[in-house]
Amino acid sequence: MALSTPSGLSVAVAGEIWWGGFTAEITIANTTGSALSGWSYSFESPHQLNSAPWGATLQAEPLDNGLIRYTLSGADWGAAIPAGGSVTVGFNGQQGVDLGVTGSLNQELLMAGDSTSPEAASQPELQPVVDEPEPDLIVEVDAPVMEEPVMDHSPEDHSGMDHSGHDHSMVAPPSSGDYIDITSWGTFHGSNHNSEHDELVGGRTAITTEALVAYNGLRAFAGLEAVEIEAVGEWAFAQGLTNNSQAWGNDTKGVGLWYAMQGAKVGWIADEAYDPQILADIQRTARLGSETGVMAMVREFGHEGFADYIEQSGLQDAFINTLKMEPHYGGWMHGRTHGFLDVEGVAIAHDINHLTVLGWDQSQPFMNDTFDWPQWPALDVSDQTVINYYQGIVALGDPLSQNLEDLAGVGVVTPEPVIDPEPEPIAAELEPIEVVEAVDPAPIVEVDAPVMEEPVMDHSPEDHSGMDHSGHDHSMVAPPSSGDYIDITSWGTFHGSNHNSEHDELVGGRTAITTEALVAYNGLRAFAGLEAVEIEAVGEWAFAQGLTNNSQAWGNDTKGVGLWYAMQGAKVGWIADEAYDPQILADIQRTARLGSETGVMAMVREFGHEGFADYIEQSGLQDAFINTLKMEPHYGGWMHGRTHGFLDVEGVAIAHDINHLTVLGWDQSQPFMNDTFDWPQWPALDVSDQTVINYYQGIVALGDPLSQNLEDLTGGGAVTPEPQPVPFPGPLLPDDGPAEIDPVVGAPVDVEVSGDLWWGGFTASLTVINQSDQTLDDWALSFTSAHRFYGEAWGVEVVTEQLSADLYRYQLNGADWGQSIGAGESRTVGFNALAGTDLARDGSLSEDTLLAAGTDFTVL
Fold this sequence. Notes:
Number of strands: 27
Number of helices: 24
Strand content: 15-25%
Helix content: 10-25%
């Protein structure tokens, strides 16, 4: 039904359409004649919208007609709209109906008919509240009632992060049919549901609480009482089967549902019958729609009587529907249930969990991240341990001990004689793969480095085991060479990587991994007095040290792995032992990506081995070094597809965690933020600094990554630099001078400071208040601070002048929506900065913290 539009407010929709989704920009214009302190805008749409818009909050209400009613409410900088002004907010979304793969978005494409209603809000500040609908009915078998979940985006769960660049995957409706969708309790970046562009293909379905029905049905068959999902979640946290050691928000519900699904998928298999291929065969059969084929396999491989039990108890649909569910759906598998529990010394819980993940053609288990099967260490674990693990999920027992050993169908229903029909065909045979022809070699620029052969994409049966590639996503495949260097994707790409950016783009100054990293790597080796090596040597070393997923190399693995680890060594190995701190890795990579060569070299001089900064400048290696710092470790999927090492580090982490220290968050202010918003999430921070720097120096020296390396490093290959005068920068800004008080306009602006502190920096919010009786256009103010602005600001442009080694003068000029301030009104603008003095890791920013001692703001 169409809703009336209050006079004085208007809405314009713009944006861009991309394959499977779109980016929307909503401009709310205020022509009421007076300033608005808040607003809301409701509309109906067939599309699924991202839960993290910018400049607004978002609430979703599923409707009976298949549409979703969304309400946008202005928040933060998007809350207030001055008289005659406008604000543009936005969000990403998934196409619910086909919009095409490119083009412009408009109101007709975004919304369902005439169903919009913009409204002004009289209160000074809107608080986003998620409406709790009445609990949805859940079909149960002796199972407890489930409460309808509420999306929890409290500061406790998100730690004050700036979400403007985050991708929370796609927001599903709070319920799926009669069951609750796991994404109602949160979604995690990095999951595309094991499909392309956030679609569930090949018969895969969402994870819902129907899995709990199947799970409790299996428990009833074993003579166990039904449990709630929270009980399963608490058990998983207690057993070390999660990323983080404690639960936040709705973690116990989501984790509990995820593990209930896993237990129901596998726990029915009889101990003596278990084989990992069964997990692929029965899930594929379910997804192809063959109920007869599924039940034939349950009778053949399941506990005696279980097939009859689920048929007689009406659980067949719930069981089959659970088999269809995709473990990667919503990102919970990597965002919360990535357990590090050691299994037989050759795998971790996450590997065992991956046995329920099928390849693209669904003929073999756990094929989503690689084409070389088997790739995961789970196949090195004994079958008995694997079935114990999954039966432990069902029994809520020790996952590494025997469980359900006396299972004889305590709750079994005595069946009537059943005549088994002939099973339907399960799957067609795979088509052979076409071999990709080699390409001509391209020249490579070198710096005293060995000659690199031009790689050829190897798609031979040895490398891909007859896989059907029709449904694969090879990420963003680059040309065989990037400029004068070879791109790592020339040797293969692995599904599941979006290059730590949205829609397969490298954003924020991130770049592709190329053989220029080998130039920087061999430069660091030369500085240490070591000879140059080829990337194959680095790759062979990595395989020998247990720093890879698979125990042996296939195809071009040694080249890709070698280049990836050469990049890692060059990124970190230059740091002096006593200076190492994980924040340095974020600071210097972000500085490189923002284009500040001067800033990079200043950090190298401050934190690097003595003489290294001079050495790379004198040797012409500065560009290669800085370009390597810009490279994104997730690029091409090698980080998870081949270099996911399981080497134990101090008993609290594995090599993959240490590797993740070079991965920056979306705002690039803190390390390894791409997979979660609860920082720190990775165990790498529990490892001693000395062990971490030994690890990276071991990459450079090709030594033991857990022993001391390069301890006598004094710049064996260092060039003795000529003394270079360092000119002190001249003034960039005009001298501070307070603005004169105009007798007509009145007093100048006032400034109020607020914001959040985080480890190593802060987010500043400056509320600029126009105390005059006329509109201020093109306003500016300056201040002096010991802290370093790092390039991200909103509502202002920032000009920086370095006054001394640890003091800066800043000029803020109103820009974009912050350029004009009405009489008696205010604008809240802001920026991020790195701490120049010791600050707390959390808390609130104040004026005294921001400004240098004895200084104040100056209006220009």
